[in-house]
Fold this sequence. Notes:
It is a multi-pass membrane protein. Helices cover 43% and strands 13% of the residues. By secondary structure, it is of the alpha/beta class.
Amino acid sequence: xxxxxxxxAGEDAPVITKREGGTTETSVTGFSTDxxxxxxxxxxxxxxxxxxxxxxLVQHLARTYSVSAGAEDNxxxxxxxxxxxxTSPNFSSRAWAKALVNLVASSGASFRTAGVAFQNLNVYGxxxxxxxxxxxxxxxxxAVNFLTRITGQKKKRIDILRNFDGLVxxxxxxxxxxxxxxxxxxxxxTIAGETNGIYVDDVSYLNYQGITPEEMHSHHRGEAIYxxxxxxxxxxxxxxDTLTFASRARRPRTLPGSVQPNNFANHLRDVVMAMFGIxxxxxxxxGNDFIRGVSGGERKRVTIAEAAxxxxxxxxxxxxxxGLDSANAIEFCRTLRLQADMFDNSAVVSIYQAPQSxxxxxxxxxxxxxxxxxFFGPTAAARQYFIDLGFGYPLQATTPDFLTxxxxxxxxxxxxxxxxxxxxxxxxxxxxWKASVQYRELQAEIEEYKQAHPLGGADxxxxxxxxxAQQARGQRAKSPYTLSYMxxxxxxxxxxxxxxxxxxSITLSSLFGNVIMGLIVxxxxxxxxxxxxxxxxxxxxxxxxxxxxxxxxxLEVCLPSPAREKDRANDF
Length: 572
C-alpha cells in the first residue's frame, strides 16, 4: 500500500502508520481501523510507546471494572437495574442470597445454623371434667375448684403427642401432615419452646445441634421461632414500618460491606417484601378485621415476611399458607427452600391441603394421626411406605393428599387381599411404624446425630460465640436480645411515635377528656380557703385525682397486647 512501511526484519510487532483520507491504521494488536487525518504526510509511531500506552489503558479499565464488579457483588450498593436491587424489575432473590453469602464469607463470618433431634417426645396437658365461663353469678363456684386443689385431687392428664421421634438437620425442611386436632400445632410449639399450657415429659429428649432445650428456649429464644396461623399486628402501622421494626430489632452489631445500620435494615426489609410480592404495600396500613388495610392474603405475607426477618436458624410455620392461593403458597415454600439452601436454615412447616409442587420442595415428611406418629422419612419414600402397608394409591391424587387420607377411614383405600392385615386405628398405625425398617434407620440416624452433636459440646460453644459477635456492646451474653437496652428503648419509642401518627384518636381523646374533667373538678374545688376547714374538701380532691387517673387506664384494655407477646417470642 502507498505510504506503508514494512516492519524491520526480525520484529514481530507491526509498525503503525497513518495516512490522509481515512486510510487504514494497522495497530499493534493486528486489527485495522479507519480514521481521518489532516496531515499530508505519513507519520511513524513508535511501537514501544504504543504498547506502554495500551498497557496503561488496560490497567485503568481493569481497575474500573473491578470496582464495578465489586459493587455488583455487594447487594447493598447494587445499581438501579441490577438483579440485586429489590426495587428493580430484574430482581432475583436467589442472586441476592448468593451475593449475601459470598459477602459474609469474604469477611470471615458465617450464618448460625441449628437443627433438632427429638426422641421419645411426649407432650401432655391437664383438663377438668367440667369448665364454665365465669360471671358475677357463678364466680363463687371457683371456691369448689380451690378446695379440690388443696385436698390433693389430681387433674386429669391428657396426652397430646405420644412417643415421637424425628431428626431435622441444618438446611433441611420438614413438612408435617395431619388433619386438624392431630397435634401438628403442638409439635411445632414444642420444638419452638412455646409450651404455655402444655408440658413435655421428663423422659423426652431434645437436641438442638448440641444445645439443650432449656438453653435454647431461654438464652436463645429468638433462634427457634413459632409462627402461628393467625395474623397479629399493630393495625395502624404501615407494612413498611412493621417490617422495619422487625429488621432493626435483629440488626447485628457487625454489618457486612460496611453498610450503614439504617440502610442495612431498610434494604433487608425491601428484599423480603420483594420476595413475597408486597413491595407495593410499603405505605399501606396493615389493618385487621375491623380496620381497613391490606388484603387478607397480603396480611398473611406480612406475617411471613416479619418472621423471615428474624433470621432464626430454626423456624416453625403453623399452617402459614392459610389464606394464600396456590401460587403464593408454592412461592412461600420456594422461599423457605432458598433460605435452607443458601443459609442452612431449618424449617418445620405444617400445611393442610399442600400442593404437589410445594410438597416436592421438602426433604422429609412427618404424618400424624390423633397424636400418634405413623411415618417419618424422606418425602420420596412416604407414598411407597403406605402402599406396602396395604393401601391403594388413587389415580390423579397428590402425594400429600394420599398421606393425609391415611388418617381418615372414609378416604383411605385398602388393596384387595389386605383387608385383615392393613392397620386401621391410630395405635395400629403407630405399631406398624415402630416395627418398620424406616423406624430403625431413623433411630440409627438420631444416635449418630447425638454422637456428632453432644449436648454442651463444641457446636454449642460455636453457636454462643456467633450470637455474641452479633449482639450489641453492653448486652448480656445470655440475653436473648440482639440490641442493647437503650437501643431497644429507642426502637420502641420510634414505633410508638409511628403508632401515634397512624392513630392519634386514643391519645387525643385521653388528653381532651383529662382537660375537660380537670376543669370540671377544679371548678368544684375552686378557691378553697387555706384553713383547717378545707381539709375534707382537699381530701376529696386528692381522691378524685387518683380516681380519674385509674379510670383513664381503662383505655389501655383495647391496646393490641398479642402483638407485643409475638414480638417478645421472636426477640423483637
